[in-house]
Amino acid sequence: MRCVAVFVGINHASAKVDFDNNIQLSLTLAALSIGLWWTFDRSRSGFGLGVGIAFLATVVTQLLVYNGVYQYTSPDFLYVRSWLPCIFFAGGITMGNIGRQLAMYECKVVAEKPHQE
């Protein structure tokens, strides 16, 4: 639950906190996202999952923008909002932790069953 709360906080901060420029916003969100990974995960697979999700989701978003399905009001860097990969990274870490907790719960429930169904 704490990981989800931090993710929601990062997402809310990206929308509500006013920064002087987008580079400052991007660096702050990158530091918060890596801090989220360090606090709640610290695994290589979790970091790889976050980077992979951030890359793939940003590419899909770019394809949507390029094809005219979606449009930014003001792109920052190479027609991408520079904070977008940071949000996707934090979301990937959060969903990975939720999945890990659900898998651990399922293994615990299966191990406690005294009989086969």
In short, what is this structure?
The protein is mostly helical and 117 residues long. It contains 4 helices and no strands.
Instruction: Note the beta-strand portion.
Output: under 5%
Count of separate structural domains: 1
Q: Helicity level, as a percent range? A: over 70%
Overall pLDDT: 83
What's the helix-strand series?
Answer: HHHH
Shape: elongated
> What is the first-to-last residue Cα distance?
32 Å
Helix/strand structural class:
mainly alpha
Main sheet attributes: strand count, strand direction, barrel closure: none
Tally of alpha and pi helices: 4
Function: Mediates feedback control of cholesterol synthesis.
Subcellular location: Endoplasmic reticulum membrane
Main location: endoplasmic reticulum
Protein name: Insulin-induced gene protein
Walk me through what this model shows.
By secondary structure, the protein is mainly α. Helices cover 74% and strands 0% of the residues. The protein has four helices and no strands. The longest helix has 29 residues, at 84-112. The two termini are 32 Å apart.
Task: Name the descriptors.
117 residues, mainly alpha, 74% helix
Write the layout of secondary structure elements.
Elements: H1 2-16, H2 22-40, H3 44-66, H4 84-112
